Amino acid sequence: MDELNNFLEAHTEMGLIGWVHQAEAARRFGITVHQAERAILEMGLLPARYQRNCGTASVEGQLVLHGSRVAVIGCGGLGGYVVEQLARLGVGTIVAVDPDVFEEHNLNRQLLSSIEGLGAPKAAAAAQRVAAINPAVTVVPVQDAFCPENASVLLAGSRVAVDALDSVQTRLELADACNRLQLPLVHGAIAGWYGQVATQLPGHATVRHIYSSWTSGAGVERELGNPSFTPAAVAGVQTAEVCKLLLGLEHPLSGRKLLLDLLHMDMDHFTLPA
């Protein structure tokens, strides 16, 4: 460990360690780049890739992000962007859950989709994408559908869960499971020009209140469609909520629903019962 620290200290410039030296430290000392990143942060230094996070997260906060595990349920329109943003933020472990493979209609909006990837599993694509942009982040791909029976396994060890689903019934089951496991949930939904985000803290019935009038059937997105920009905008808000929860920052969307209207460029809050 002393040799690793000495190597890192010798290659520090203004408190930053460049990617080349982080990767070389991993190779030279027989550790993963994930472990090398932790060593850098524990020394009070910062991998150079995160220097623009400063002001949003301190070095200590970056270490918290690195040690956090987040479960993203759904890797399509919303989930693909959330996975990417969490990885670029520096969240150390991401569980990417999705049973589906890419189809042609995904190409208009899903970040992880490509022509070459048609027919490929979405969860595996999430892992491949993150490996290409931040190898210090571990992605656990799960090609399976979330359900109450596997909830404890899929959510085990996570500090926050992200709802990136397109089924109201499954959203409700996820929300209930998070309450059973005392896990915060960041909900997001999109339809056409519109999107919504809310944070359900343990013990609250936030998602059930949002869908209190729903009885059955598909969501409104089946009628309004989903263009390229709506999932990107809503996923960004969801990722900000996850960041606040992980870092213990104030002002999460608890007890509130944020509604985005990208057609009229309006943003409204609605108070929800606890």
Give a summary of the structure in a few sentences.
This protein has 2 domains: 2-62, no CATH class; 67-271, Rossmann fold (3-Layer(aba) Sandwich), CATH 3.40.50.
Task: Tell me about this structure.
Residues 50-272 form the THIF-type NAD/FAD binding fold domain. Pfam families: ThiF. InterPro entries: ThiF/MoeB/HesA, ThiF_NAD_FAD-bd. This is HesA/MoeB/ThiF family protein. The chain is of the alpha/beta class. The chain has 2 domains: 2-62, no CATH class; 67-271, Rossmann fold. The chain is 40% helix and 18% strand. The protein contains 11 helices and 10 strands. The chain has helices at residues 2-10, 19-29, 33-42, 59-66, 77-89, 122-133, 151-155, 168-180, 206-210, 221-224, 229-247; strands spanning 16-17, 46-47, 69-73, 93-97, 138-142, 160-163, 185-191, 194-200, 256-261, 266-271. Strands 5-4-3-6-7-8-9-10 form an 8-stranded mixed sheet, sandwiched between helices. Strand 7 and strand 8 form a beta hairpin. The longest helix has 19 residues, at 229-247.
Structural domains: how many: 2
The sequence of SSEs as H and E is HEHHEHEHEHEHEHEEHHHEE
Radius of gyration: 19 Å
Task: Name the poorly predicted regions.
Answer: none
What gap, in angstroms, lies between the N and C termini?
48 Å
- Overall shape: it is globular
**What strand line-up does the widest sheet have?**
5-4-3-6-7-8-9-10
**Structure summary, number of beta strands:** 10
Biggest sheet, open or closed, and with what strands and sense? 8 strands, mixed
Notable traits:
274 residues; globular; Rossmann fold; alpha/beta; 2 domains; two-stranded parallel sheet; HesA/MoeB/ThiF family protein; ThiF_NAD_FAD-bd
